[in-house]
Amino acid sequence: MTARLYGTLLVLCGALFLDGLDVSMVGVALPSIQADLGLSNSALQWIVSGYVLGYGGLLLLGGRAADLLGRRRVFLWAIGVFALASLLGGLVDDPNLLIGTRFVKGVAAAFTAPAGLSIITTTFHEGPARNRALSFYTACGASGFSMGLILGGLLTEAGWRMTFLLPAPIALVILIAGIKLIPRHRTERPAGAGYDLGGAATSTAALLLLVYAVVEAPNAGWLSARTLGSFALVAALVVAFVSIERRVAHPLVRLGILRNRTLVRANLGALAVTGSYIGFQFIGTLYVQVVLGWSPLSMALAFLPAGLIVAFGGPRVGGLVNRFGTAPVVAGGFVAFLAAYLLFLRIDGQANYVGVILPTMLLLGAGFALAFPTLNIQGTSGVADEEQGLASGLVQTSFQIGGAIALAGVTAILASDAPAPGHVPDSFYPAIGLVSGIAVFGLLIAAIGVLDRRGRHRGTPVDRSGMDHVPADYSRTELERIGRAG
Predict the structure, then answer these.
(1) Could you tell me which of 404, 348, 393, 342 has the C-alpha nearest to residue 367?
(2) pLDDT digits 0-9 by tens, 235-256
(3) Rounded Cα distance, 457 and 169, in Å
(4) Is 364:313 a contact under the CB 8 Å cutoff?
(5) Which of 43, 147, 166, 462 is the most exposed place for a label (fewest CB within 10 A)?
(6) What are the Cα distances from residue 128, in Å, to 125, 145, 186, 215, 481?
(7) How far is the C-alpha of 252 from the C-alpha of 241, rounded, in Å?
């Protein structure tokens, strides 16, 4: 790679690193924010949920906007908005304004994430080069999350506002570097592409309402009229969206892309990865800080081994994908996740770091290092350049929605039995069972992919000469089509 190409990759990795850093720092600072501003528990959760609402609700639109408006342009504008919202978030005193800045930052991330990912997938050729770049890219996101735990604990000691202010100068540096290093592509916008305003409106409304309904369901009640009505309206919006996409000349989401079974499995796997991981992280945080009484910094250091494994192991996953394909690597990740969650069932009111917490963190790190970058590779493989933003938006949406839904389910289970110092509530165990079940679902999806891949490789062999860049997960038909095209 040229020096400029390395620089481009570093800029994009920096944006994802910043996203992980921001999320984890704010999570550590939540108790201090609550004490300083006098927030209730329901208001406090919106500092996190407001970000998820903006991020998960607008990712699909962000991905398509990158395809139509230009990935470089969308990425740079969104990074600028992220920097401004970070600055405002550290200065405001009103809780509603604070939550509002978090929502704006989530919206900005909804445009930077698919734009950055699609810049990589259209800059690096599909195969070993792209796999290596994506492995490094996703590992930077996990590294940012791990670093945020440590910095969040340190900065909170000086004042929780520092956790909001720190991302602003980092985002500004990324913006300046991006202007200089990210190349311009004159042919980014597909010829004849138009804007699907109806599809954008219905899909964004459906995703926003879905995230809102899931986040609020534990407070309103899962069977309340408000919750059921919200889900019914989401279903109606989805039906309207599909109807629009089938009739419009230039759809926001070309429904034919969902015939790509590998892409569909990647999105289902993404739901399961963040669903189980975010749900477990909530349980683990309560256990370590409330039951064991550890400080935020001590908790961050206890969780750090998982992040270190992702940081050092994630960039090397591309080699495994090149050798075995995506499905077996994803399956290995879910096996590690499931082992970690089942091991954590051994917790009690006394700290057992060496016997329970540390091995759980090591298994979590291995699972995330294997599954997260591989699902990003899988979700963008075999997709045309003009739809890379769409594919990236789909898989990133799945990551966000999975986390929101699982966190709401875990919160609902834990709501009836609050933890206390030295006492593990009975509700912890069914909550761990829920995240374990989500991991089993992900493992089954990955296993189907392994079986499907083996089935595709049976029969008359296909000449792969000159196609070393083609992933092993491609079907016989796809390989024959690529071979005929030269």
Answers:
(1) 342
(2) 999 999 889 888 887 777 778 8
(3) 51
(4) no
(5) 43
(6) 8, 26, 26, 39, 20
(7) 9
Q: Residue type for 23, please?
A: V
Quick one: tokens of 164? 């909001």
Q: Three-state SS string across 204-270, please?
A: HHHHHHHHHHHHHHHHHCCCCHHHHHHHHHHHHHHHHHHHHHHHCCCCCCCHHHHHCHHHHHHHHHH
Look at 146 and 464; give whichever has higher pLDDT.
146
| 435-472 residue pLDDT tens | 999 999 999 999 998 887 666 655 434 333 333 344 44
User: Is residue 381's pLDDT more than 50?
Assistant: yes
Quote the CA–CA distance of 306 and 364 in Å, as a whole number. Answer: 6
Which residues does residue 308 pair with via DSSP β-bridges, in sequence order? none
pLDDT tens per residue, range 22-65: 887 887 777 788 778 887 666 776 787 788 778 877 877 787 78
Q: How many helices and strands, by DSSP H and E, does the chain display?
A: 17, 0
**Residues 407, 409, 414: CA angle, nearest 5 degrees:** 90
Is the pLDDT at 431 greater than 80? The verdict is: yes
Could you give the CA distance from residue 201 to residue 179 in angstroms, rounded to a whole number? 30
CA 57 to CA 50: how far, in whole Å?
A: 10
In SS3 terms, 18-78 reads as HHHHHHHHHHHHHHHHHHHHCCCHHHHHHHHHHHHHHHHHHHHHHHHHHHHHCHHHHHHHH
Q: How far apart are CA 306 and CA 363, in angstroms?
A: 8
Spell out the residues 6+ positions from residue 161 whose beta carbon is closer than 8 angstroms to its own: 90, 91
The pLDDT value given to residue 434 = 94
Q: In the structure, what pLDDT confidence band is assigned to residue 345 with cuts at 50, 70 and 90?
A: very high
Q: How far apart are CA 438 and CA 329, in angstroms?
A: 18
Distances (CA, A) of 82 to 2, 106, 165: 29, 8, 11
d(CA 263, CA 230): 28
Q: Which two tokens stand for residue 220?
A: 């309103």
Residue indicated by tokens 């409330």: 290
